[in-house]
Amino acid sequence: MHENEISGIVVDCCYQIHYQLGPGLFESVYEEILCYELTKMGLSVESQKAAPVIWDGIVLGSGFRMDVVVENKVILELKSVEAIAAVHQKQLLTYLKLTGLKLGLLINFNVPLIKDGIQRIVHRL
Predict the structure, then answer these.
(1) Mean pLDDT on 28-48
(2) By C-alpha distance, which of 60, 32, 86 is closest to 94?
(3) pLDDT of 57-73, one tens digit each?
(4) Mean pLDDT confidence for 19-41
(5) pTM above 0.90, yes or no
(6) Contact 83, 72 (CB under 8 A)
(7) What is the CA radius of gyration of the chain?
(8) Which of 26, 52, 59, 105 is deepest in the core (most CB within 10 A)?
(9) What single string gives the DSSP state of each residue in the chain?
């Protein structure tokens, strides 16, 4: 499955979750429900996936945790915040660079309309 197909499914799921629950819940609640829904649709989903940092050719253990990785192709960085900051976008871009993946979605559930809370972040390899 291509990254764009995966992202379309994720966006649809986010819409359904947001429509039913609305904004204002903890990020962990949205994450658990989103993972459940994506798994129910037959997608491979890893929640809180640890990734090592490699420095000077040495693996330095678990450097960071990605909120959700779908089909080993798309990283989802979930938020439930008043506003997305530039550091959130940079965080996701760094995850993409370190993992070699191309597409990430920065999703803020704490918005009146979920379409305004989703940003695509693309890393050109």
Answers:
(1) 98
(2) 86
(3) 888 877 789 999 999 99
(4) 97
(5) yes
(6) no
(7) 14
(8) 105
(9) --HHHHHHHHHHHHHHHHHHH-S-S-HHHHHHHHHHHHHHTT--EEEEEEEEEEETTEEEEEEEEEEEEETTTEEEEEE-SSS--HHHHHHHHHHHHHHT--EEEEEE-SSSSGGGGEEEEE---
Dig out the tokens for 73 from the structure: 């192709």
C-beta separation of 122 from 102 below 8 A: yes
Domains and CATH numbers, the chain: 3-122 (3.40.1350)
- Mean pLDDT to the nearest integer, 75-102: 95
Residue corresponding to tokens 């900051």: 85
